[in-house]
Amino acid sequence: MPNTKTVNRYHEPLLQPAPALLSVSSARMLAFWLIGMALATLPFYSTLIPPLSQHFYNLVRMAILADPTAFTRDFVIRWDPMPDLAMDLTVPWLASIMPVEQAARLFILINLVLLTSGTVVLSWVINGRWSVLPLLSFLFVYNRILVRGYANSLFALGLALWALAAHVSLRRMPMLRALVSSFSALAIYLCHLFPLGLFVLVAGGWELGCLLQERITLRRLVRHAAPALLPLVFPLVLLVISSTSQHSDEITFGLLRIREKLKLCLEVLMVGNRLGDALVILGLGGSAILAVARGWLSCQPEWRVTVLALPFVVVMAPFSAFAAYNIIERIALGAVFLLPAILAARPKDHRLQCWVAGGLSLVFVIRIATVAADWRAADQIIQTYRTTLSTLQPGSVLFQFERDISYPSPLRDPAWWNPPLDKVVALATLNGVLVPKLYLKLGQQPVLYNPDNTPLREFQIAQLNRPRPQASDTDLRAWLSEMHDRFPDLRSRFSAVYIAVFDPHRRLTSDLPGTRLISTLPGHRLYEIVDWTALDACYDTAEAQRDVDCAAPGRQ
Known about the structure:
This protein is α+β, with helices and mostly antiparallel strands.
């Protein structure tokens, strides 16, 4: 016989009415969400191009897809069913009715809408009532994944939250649940791969949790296994035939690097502003400790497996897979959005809960104010870059040399991420300048460099494999001379050759043989190569000195 204590408990009312703080009406919930969205979107009114690292690359890619004929000299487009196409399938279409910069910014705004509304709706489906607890999601919308510009991943995560809400809402219709979740999984796959994994794991955990609340029979096992496993069929088929499958062996687990993974989980809510980051971490940490100590949180029995599994999934997740990085942070961020949706708040210590809610609301307002101020300052920097890059000759090429390739932690160097400027020179592409550093890789994006430019990209990204993360003046000069040695036809192929040296802390000399300093920008110094003979003359000397430096004992 089924366990009558737990079957059909999905929407049981609480034993006692919840105070207004915890349980709210639909109208009030909508008002709270609209107010939260109005505040959360304020930073976007400060700038046309959000200062997000990968967003500069994404914006260029969207411009190429929106007008392919304008970029045929440097790029080719190859579509296949790869799992990273959220922006690529939507923004070029939006760009037909608005400028591409506005279309890309609107896409990121849609991410915020999906993430917060998905958390709220999933909470309602799970717990059977509207609650203020999932409004915590507004504290998470500005995070390190957003700062890194991984818009496709965030869009897919928001879609996964809504797909989970649909999955759970069909709890008594297993076949329809399997069908709907199969289409949901396909849509999530096309947006991004890793939120699909999270969707499947959470849906499967819920199905297992439901099964454990019943007397297990073969029929019930099939009723729960089918909706959990069938959604994987189409995505797996598409993954196998896609160009992404060629990166299936590029996985770094690091199972014993637990401390490093926990540190990344902490950093996922940081954006590079010391005040805002500290308040968010301390506010959430203190509130969580208080909630656990006072017994404020509860969980439906069928969700306990998922809640217990989420920390394990985060710790066991790989550092990189399928040539993509920051997977720990992406999975951790997904767990951060899921927990306020899964858990329910018990009506206890009403006055203390009011103080906690008020304190977290104040933290949210401060977070938005600091982000808006930072983005307003960053907009001036981005406009300075755009003005300078617009003076470069069309038909030229712009290489970049990075002094530091270590991507410092926001705990150690928050200013590096506020704003991240390592990819801003990509905007020169919009002015007809070839930038070999764009992140365009088979299996990751549908836009690729044409065969003539592929060697330039390979040379550009090869510096990421150099033995030392921090480069010296000797490394820079040797790199310049090696570039000319490998590509002696640059002068004939391009109208001009430019070098952007990314050195925000000004650790390298500004005196480069054979170059003319064009501009000193906040993160870069921009040069034009004017005397190739001088580069050739310093090649052997620079290479010899670099070998000596690398062999020096104690050299970091």
